[in-house]
Amino acid sequence: MNKTIGILAHVDAGKTTFSEQLLYHTKSIKTRGRVDHQNAYLDSHEIEKQRGITVFADQGMFQYEDCTYYLIDTPGHVDFSPEMERAIQVMDFAIVIVSAVEGIEGHTETVWNLLKKHNIPTFFFINKTDRTGANVEMVLDEIRSQLTENMIDLSEGFSDEKMTEELIEFIAERDEELLSYYIENGYDSKLWLLKMKEMIKSSKIYPCSRGSALQDIGVKEFLEKFHLLTVTNYSTSEPFGGRVYKIRYDEAGTRVTYIKALCGTLKVRDDLVYGNGDIEKVTQIRKYNGKQFQQVNQATAGELIAVVGLSNAVVGDGVGVLKEASMYEMVPALKSKVVFEPGVNAKEALRYFRILEAEDPSLNVTWVERLQEIQLHVMGTIQLEVLEQMVLERFSLKIHFEQPEILYKETIENEVVGYGHFEPLRHYAEVHLKLTPGERNSGIVFESTCHTDNLSVGLQNLVGQHVLEREHHGLLTGSQVTDIKVTLLTGRDHNKHTHGGDFREATYRALRQGLEKASNILLEPFYKFKIKVDLDQMGRVLSDIQAANGRFEAPETEGDKAIITGFAPVATFMDYSTVLASFTHGKGRISLTFGGYHRCHNEEEVIERIGYDKNADPEYTSSSIFCAKGQGFTVKWDEAEAMMHCL
């Protein structure tokens, strides 16, 4: 049986040490490394050793009794959350490590919410019980009150043959049939164990154990219980299907695509379909354990594999019979510019950043032609420091980044119709697009109501492709346009003169002309926050939130603590965790998660500061081109509508 398990936690809770113990006890490694000694098996990158944190979601393998386990040690720092989320989507089970000293911390709640979103069965391990200040009962209460009431402590009185009375009743209360059986017939160990496995797999209950990973207390016992209570069912009789969860380039420069095999069997030399219908031959199949890998001739459902031969696959792609791509919630709210030393050709260096973008799609690397510079999206300053070091180590290129800025977006408030016409000599395309305000954080949505008498289905699809193929610039700051439903109303081509690229030109002009007519607004990223402080500190927090242009729900009380939830702009709230720690002397808790984009609180100030000139953007124009007497001529956006051919 194949099981993929992920180890997750807030930074410094002991994930990597716990993972090392699992690998050691199952004889996958001969010696146990330590993060503080810079010899942890899974923190094999030099950057991880130097910083003492996990940056990359690396994996190990071990055998335990009749099962093969694939173990993923994920980053715990918020700056590397996208890497953690990509790993979550291929886990069969998750193990959340919580420190017995610090308890539930901000990032722990982020991890928990992602696990719930993706419906990943979860175990808890309360770590560092040997440390001064450890309070296991407090942590158990925090898990029940802040995460789930369906957590059950398995530290004592549990095996495959017996359960405590408390556990027997806990299981029975969550299954009507079992409760009826219990009332009539009493306890049956085999039936209870079977039901417990089902409830864990369906995320109805969450087992919890305790111990010390560093002192090797309770880890082996946890593994025994985990093995007993988990089961997977993968089918090898179907055609092959899987999910891409990671891209890496190995030391030889070979592009390696990591896949979770979800059904069927894959063999070397098989053709594999992925993405938008690309088909390529698999030339190698690898099984990684740390940095080492073994080449195999085939892989079956339930395994984590890495293949060579797929040149265009991206993280999240379905492969084989699985077509749907994954969607990710952890997205950067900041952007930064790459600064090179004198003499470096930025455009030539762009290929290095394309490699990094393939490995981490959230970077969203952009080449800004008019400025001749590279920009990328980031989660925070620690990520930028790591990227500087990575670029130097891997590509021998010394760089630094400018101070990160807020990543703004733009949208419209009213419905308009945009018209685009592109007709220089021997070219022809016309497009009419209706732009409708969409739901907030819905992105760009395309549909067509155009009749096939006006444009063929193929050309209608081409217009849709051009609408969705890139981020379009808004008029206020040149930021990405979002939250708009784009409807193709009609269009026209020419049998002789329409060529490749004509409909791209007409589509972009129609979008831009529509934006010129619309009421445009600026959006900024918001945090969704949850803050827990002493009651006498609540007033200070509420005042700070209002000063930061945030909004909050009615505070809740929990004993002598106040719990405050709400939304606040990233621009004004990104450093608040430091402020909170200062006036609460480190006792205040804050959880910040991306809360989507909403109306910018200081729109005029931002527009003036950015100073975008909508008429000087080399990539976009709202004017159309018409042809008369064998010559093309430009017509401004506010005059073009009257000259459209389809009206």
From TrEMBL:
Signal peptide: none
Domain of life of the source: Bacteria
Keywords carried by this UniProt record: Antibiotic resistance, GTP-binding, Nucleotide-binding, Protein biosynthesis
Limits of the Tr-type G domain: 1-234
InterPro entries, per the entry: EF-G-like_DII, EFG_III/V, EFG_V-like, P-loop_NTPase, Ribosomal_Su5_D2-typ_SF, Ribsml_uS5_D2-typ_fold_subgr, Small_GTP-bd, T_Tr_GTP-bd_dom
Protein's job: Abolishes the inhibitory effect of tetracyclin on protein synthesis by a non-covalent modification of the ribosomes.
Protein name, entry field: Small GTP-binding protein
Species of origin: Metabacillus niabensis
Taxonomic lineage of the native organism: Bacteria, Bacillati, Bacillota, Bacilli, Bacillales
